[in-house]
Amino acid sequence: MFRHKRVTITGQNAIEVVENVLTGTADKVKTVHGIFVLETTSTKQNDAIIKVWLEQELITEIPYPVFLDCVDVTNPLRISPAFIPVGVNLAEGKELNVGILSGATLSVFEVVVEYEQGD
Questions:
Q1: SS3 for the chain, per residue?
Q2: How far apart are CA 11 and CA 75, in angstroms?
Q3: What is the rounded average pLDDT of the residues 66-71?
Q4: pLDDT tier at 58 (50, 70, 90 boundaries)?
Q5: Are 116 and 1 in contact, with CB atoms under 8 Å apart?
Q6: Which of 16, 36, 41, 113 shows a CA-CA span of 20 to 30 A to 60?
């Protein structure tokens, strides 16, 4: 059964803000399938970079604009919410972290981790 954990990450201007979104436990293995991300900034910036980390190891780095349908550059449509596949098992004490590197203006993102927890 899939489980979901939601975290709000508030970026800072031109600085990466990293938040722990899930930690492995001794009793049950957690298999992370991926994360959903959605910019919720009141005035959308569309310029952040999303980074997914397993401890200190960078798993992926994706510019948020790749999730936009830019038929009209002045009013892009969002693919909501965007899904980033991760595919890792979290051992006891291991942390899955998500970083938001905002552009010149801060961005706010809702991040939802999709995972399974073993018996």
A1: CEEEEEEEEECECCEEEEEEEEECCCCCCEEEEEEEEEECCCCCCCCCEEEEEECCEEEEEEEHHHHEECCCCCCCEECCCEEEEEEEEECCCCEEEEEEECCCCCCEEEEEEEEEECC
A2: 22
A3: 68
A4: very high
A5: yes
A6: 41
Between CA 10 and CA 108 the distance in angstroms is 4
12/17 Cα distance (integer angstroms)? 7
Contact (Cβ atoms closer than 8 angstroms) between residue 4 and residue 74: no
Residue showing tokens 């005035």: 43
pLDDT for 89-107, tens place per residue? Answer: 998 999 999 999 998 888 8
Residue holding tokens 């905002």? 102
What is the rounded average pLDDT of the residues 55-78? 76
Is residue 54 predicted with pLDDT exceeding 80? yes
Per-residue model confidence (pLDDT) at position 42: 72
Tokens 């693919």 correspond to 79
